[in-house]
Structures are given as C-alpha cells and as structure tokens.
Automatic annotation (TrEMBL):
<feature type="transmembrane region" description="Helical">
    <location>
        <begin position="229"/>
        <end position="246"/>
    </location>
</feature>
<feature type="domain" description="Cytochrome b561">
    <location>
        <begin position="186"/>
        <end position="379"/>
    </location>
</feature>
<feature type="domain" description="DOMON">
    <location>
        <begin position="67"/>
        <end position="178"/>
    </location>
</feature>
<dbReference type="InterPro" id="IPR045266">
    <property type="entry name" value="DOH_DOMON"/>
</dbReference>
<keyword id="KW-0249">Electron transport</keyword>
<feature type="transmembrane region" description="Helical">
    <location>
        <begin position="253"/>
        <end position="278"/>
    </location>
</feature>
<feature type="transmembrane region" description="Helical">
    <location>
        <begin position="321"/>
        <end position="344"/>
    </location>
</feature>
<dbReference type="Pfam" id="PF03188">
    <property type="entry name" value="Cytochrom_B561"/>
</dbReference>
<keyword id="KW-0813">Transport</keyword>
<dbReference type="Pfam" id="PF03351">
    <property type="entry name" value="DOMON"/>
</dbReference>
<feature type="transmembrane region" description="Helical">
    <location>
        <begin position="356"/>
        <end position="376"/>
    </location>
</feature>
<protein>
    <recommendedName>
        <fullName>Cytochrome b561 and DOMON domain-containing protein</fullName>
    </recommendedName>
</protein>
<keyword id="KW-1133">Transmembrane helix</keyword>
<keyword id="KW-0812">Transmembrane</keyword>
<dbReference type="InterPro" id="IPR005018">
    <property type="entry name" value="DOMON_domain"/>
</dbReference>
<feature type="signal peptide">
    <location>
        <begin position="1"/>
        <end position="21"/>
    </location>
</feature>
<keyword id="KW-0732">Signal</keyword>
C-alpha cells in the first residue's frame, strides 16, 4: 500500500517539466512506488496521473525477465503510439531501440537515466555502430513528442514514458542497460557508453505477444568459436603432446601425431574462414582478434610446409628442422589459447565458455606436467 501524502506536501514535491525546444525532451522526476509488474496495475495507477498521456488502455508485457524490464504500450491515435518502459533504477541508463532487422546497430533508440543530482534525462540516439563515437545523440528516425515525454523515478525503479508519431512502430525492439561502473551520459556531449547487457524481441502489437530474437549470425558465430577452439585450442596441443611424450611408441606416435594435427588444422582453417565471412557480414571492431587469427593460420601453414619438406632423420639439417618445427608449434599454440579467450570476451559468450575451455586447458596442462616429470625421471 502507498502511504497517503497531504495535498500541500504533494504540491511541493510535484515533478518539474523541462521543455527544451530542439535538443532536450520534457522530463519529470516522481517519487512513488517501489515495485512494478504487469499484475500490479493498481500500484502503477498511482503514478499514471503524472504521465502526460492517456494510460488507461495500455498493454503490458515483461519483455526482458532477467533484467526485469516491463513495457506498456498502446496506439493512442491513427499515427500516434504511447510507450512506458519500466526497469530497476541504477547508476546508469536504460534504452529501448526500434530496429529494422533485430540488430542493435542501425536502430534508433530512446535512452533514459537519472543523473547524480537526481534529475531525469531522456535522449534519442542513432546506433550507427558498436563504438561510442558511432552512437549519435539527437539522431535517428524516431519522431518523439517532446511535450509528453516523462521520466518517473523512485528508490528502486525508473519509468521512461514517451510517444511516437508513426503509423506503426517497428516490431523488432532492442533493449539495453548500462554498466553501473560507467557514469550515465552528461553534458555537453551526452556520449553513450558501452552497455552492460542487451536483448532483442519481436513484438506483435496487436496480440501483445513477444518472442526473443536470436542474435544475427549467431549460428555462424558459434561455429567460428567452436571450430577454432577444437582445432587450434584442443587438437593441436594434444597432437604436440603425442609427438613429445609418445616417441617410444615408434612409428605409431608419428601417424597419431600427423592425423591429429591434420584434423586440427582442417578444423582451425574452417574456423578462420567462418570468422572472415562473419567479419564481412557484421560491423564489428575486432582487428586484434582477426590479426591474431591470421597469424595463427600462417603458423599452421608453415607447419604443413615443414611437414612436406622435412629432411631425413639422418640428415645434418634435421636438428635445425626439429628446432624450427617445435618452436613454431609452441608459438602457434600460445597465440591460439590467447585468441580463444579473447574471442570469448569479444563475443560476450559468458562464463560457461570460459569455464568450459578453462577446464579442458587445465586437464591438458596437468597431463603435460605429469608426462614431462615422468620423461625427466626416465632420463
């Protein structure tokens, strides 16, 4: 239940309205309820009178359950739509974008936040790329009614209310939440920092049903990561261990080593090709990751050439060839491990990928140490 407040106190604490002709949207800060859900319309009703458009017929949908984002919307007229996005308040921003294809890049977005002085702010942005410099403030194709845009806030939630002048909004909606460690946008640039998390849904405005949109090229991304991890990051190290620790099983070790390395190279090459195709299809700044990948592939090609041009065992140059072959192989494995973890970081694949590969790598390292100790003891 919400405690009743005397009329005079309510008037004193009424939110203020800022109408800035071209650069700013009208904003309100209100203190009220502490929780929100689609089943708590009575609580939301206590705030609805502070919103500058009709809220009695809004549809409600929990659009992002992990971040507790709730969207209310309705068609207010022939070419007018009303939206209210509710989310937990934080030391950063919340955003809602209208995407042509479900991707964040290319979307026009509305972003709201509470500044350090407690004032509410709302801006529109064009998401032209994945770097802050490509996110352009006061740009995009959204026609927002500034005199009905409102920010409502209490101790736990922020409400971003706005109206769009459009026949029908795009059904592909993207949502984002900023990183609490980064301050929200501020004057004079209102630069938007990298988001902490994001999601995309496809909303059927008529039925009120939403479905999650799979990230663009997600299957290709997964194939790129899996092939490179299996090829360069697992099979190639196993093949190297066979060559170092199983030479007493002659000539079986040679055929096992050659077979494992060949399979690892084929999978790794396929992974690099998938990465190059992916780089051609998406707008991503992954130059370091790409450079490391090409370097690893070059090392792999050198190893294949070295295998084809290997001298006889009794040849005088065999010692130098062995040194070259093992050195290039170790460098390739080192760069591959670094690039796999770096790729997981870039893809924001989550802790499960880091943990999974980390466990496999830990098993390989432990096995290598045991085998190395046994080999030294035999010497």
């Amino acid at each position: 239940m919400i405690k009743k407040i005397p009329m005079m106190k309510l008037l004193i604490n009424l939110p203020f309205l800022l109408i800035l002709a071209s650069n700013h949207l009208s904003l309100h800060m209100i203190h009220g309820q502490t929780q929100d859900s689609c089943g708590s319309n009575s609580n939301f009703g206590s705030l609805s009178s502070q919103i500058l458009f009709e809220t009695s017929s809004l549809n409600c949908l929990a659009v992002w359950s992990s971040e507790n984002f709730i969207l209310r919307y309705s068609q207010a007229g022939p070419s007018l739509w009303s939206f209210i996005l509710s989310a937990p308040i934080s030391n950063s921003y919340i955003g809602m974008g209208f995407s042509p294809n479900g991707a964040m890049v290319g979307s026009s977005a509305v972003v709201g936040w509470v500044a350090s002085d407690g004032s509410g702010n709302m801006k529109k942005y064009f998401l032209g790329g994945q770097t802050p410099s490509q996110v352009l403030v006061d740009q995009g194709d959204l026609q927002i009614l500034g005199n009905t845009s409102t920010i409502l806030s209490d101790t736990s939630r922020i409400y971003m209310a706005f109206q769009l002048a459009i026949d029908e909004p795009r059904p592909q909606l993207v949502y984002s939440v900023g990183d609490n460690s980064n301050p929200p946008p501020s004057t004079p640039s209102f630069r938007l920092t990298q988001h902490r998390n994001h999601a995309a849904i496809r909303l059927n405005y008529a039925s009120g049903e939403g479905s999650r949109i799979k990230a663009p090229y997600s299957n290709l991304k997964r194939a790129h990561g899996t092939l490179n991890m299996m090829g360069w990051g697992i099979l190639i190290p196993i093949g190297a261990m066979v060559a170092r620790y199983l030479k007493h099983m002659n000539p079986l070790w040679f055929y096992v080593h050659t077979g494992i390395q060949s399979l690892g190279f084929i999978l790794g090459l396929s992974g690099v090709i998938a990465g190059l195709v992916l780089d051609n299809r998406i707008d991503a700044n992954v130059n370091k990751h790409k450079g490391l990948g090409i370097t690893i592939l070059a090392f792999g090609c050198l190893q294949v050439l070295a295998f084809l041009a290997r001298p006889a065992v009794e040849a005088k140059t065999r010692t130098y060839w062995n040194w070259y072959h093992s050195s290039v192989g170790r460098l390739m494995i080192f760069f591959a491990i670094v690039n796999i973890f770096y790729g997981i970081h870039l893809a924001k694949a989550g802790s499960s990928w880091n943990a999974g590969y980390g466990v496999v790598l830990g098993i390989l390292v432990t096995s290598g140490l045991i085998l190395e100790i046994n080999m030294l003891r035999k010497k």
